[in-house]
Amino acid sequence: MPREFQRGHKARISDLTAGTDLYVGVQITAPGLTFDISCFGLDAEERLSDDRYFIFFNQPKSPEESIQLLGAQAGDTESFRITLDRIPPQIQKLSFTATLDGAGQMSQISPGYLRIVAGGEEVARYAFNGSEFSSERAVMLGDFYLKDVWRFAAVGQGFDGGLDALLKNFGGEVAEEEAPAAPQQPQAGAATPGFAPPAFGAPSAPAPAQPQPAAQGFAPPPGATPPAPAPSVHAAPTIVAPLTPPGGGHVPPPAPAPAPYGQPPQPQPYGQGPAPTAPMPPGYGQQPQAPQAPPGYGQPPQPPGYGQQPPFGQVPGQQAYGVPQGAPQGGAGVAAALQQFKETPTGQRWTQQNRKLVRVDLGMGGQPVLARQGSMVLYQGKVDFSYKGAGFAGRIVGNATGQEMQLMRCTGQGQVFLAENSTMLHPIELQGDGICVSAENVLAFDESLQYEVRRIEGHGIPGGALFTMQFTGTGTIVVKTHGTPVVLPVTPTTFADCNAVVAWSSAAQVVVSSQVRMRRNAYPGDTGESVNLQFRGAPGNFIVVQPYEV
Length: 550
Known about the structure:
Number of helices: 5
Structural class: mainly beta
Low-confidence stretches: 177-181, 187-191, 200-249, 318-331, 459-464, 516-523
Shape: globular
Largest sheet: 15 strands, mixed
Distance between the termini: 51 Å
Oligomer: single chain
């Protein structure tokens, strides 16, 4: 029986199936509406850095064929073949999306799903319907993402705008139409691949009698000449192109007509050196020198002519320093200057905007978030903030152990940005495991996580013990550190300063190691390192230490 997913749920693919050759089917329909279903292959920064990994109707497979578009079959509106062990290392995430082709909105869709099939058996299904969306024209359905191992996340997040806006969100650029090209669809009559689910009792249709071109499935027939490569995506109506053209790849604009014979040459622009010699008639096969003309919007300036020098500090063929690529000279604007600080593309419940700012989408998963009081710096949408008390017993335990957390509950539909005192933030996802963190180092966490005060056994110090917070369950916790931390494996000889350690795996055994000696501390020259924590545990346990002592 397939595992049922809800929006925001995640799981390791190895927990669903041991196979790596997967079938992904999407069913999304609405009366009178047409959908384009695509797969974006993104890098570690969730950007479409290589447009060959944008898999859609006009580019049905990636270069090494690890991602292939199979077409409508087995009751699915669209289907894909994903071979995980063939995906190149620069591709860290596969985002499956659906966009409307024409008028309409996502609230009109009928109940649909995204499912994963392995070996002909369905292993996972994420169901959705139109009541989860409003006026959006696109939706991010689900993700395959690499985090140590490949995992699956049911996203179900609506997106304003159509395919063009979705491309720009992933770092692509939509170019103008150059020439109409017929969409290249997978062969409709091809037999369902062996790893795909059955076609719900539909018999396989025999091959048509009329001659057919070479099959366009995910592999050419044995012994046949490989088909010609698919037409370039840059000749299709929808195009993904890098934001910055490669150096030297542009074609200068055509030069205007030369000045009439006998007219004195145009004066050179300010900042360019004079020509070494007087203007000479063009030689055989040469064009007369054209006067300088201001570049059009979005075009790089024309390189200086023969004998002319570019402005001081400027490399020939490049724009002036400080002017963004693709912008007119002298008009960078505020938007271009702030481009590097724009919001990081979303698609996950927790998204780190930079090293010191994190964003949580409350609409994904439907679970409230508990955060340190006063840590909100910005929010969007309808979000409610309320006091989260620990109760009478909780306050007593917190005061006695030093592990009291002053929390607020964030609920509603929107996005909340969290930060505190410019400390570095580290979202940590728990998948049924646990982690021990000092309350001082906790910024926020999903309310679905269970937490309690844990006692660290020890001897030789007053009270005989220290305390920490232990978090277990499924969800995300955001840990804050002063500076960049270091993660070390636990060995029999691992000791850490109790004032510098931030977190450790809950399966590790921790004891207090004291070096207190009355004679040693009775005289000047104490080292200040009299109390440490000793860690023990099986291979796989870890500790996190920051370059700062509380």
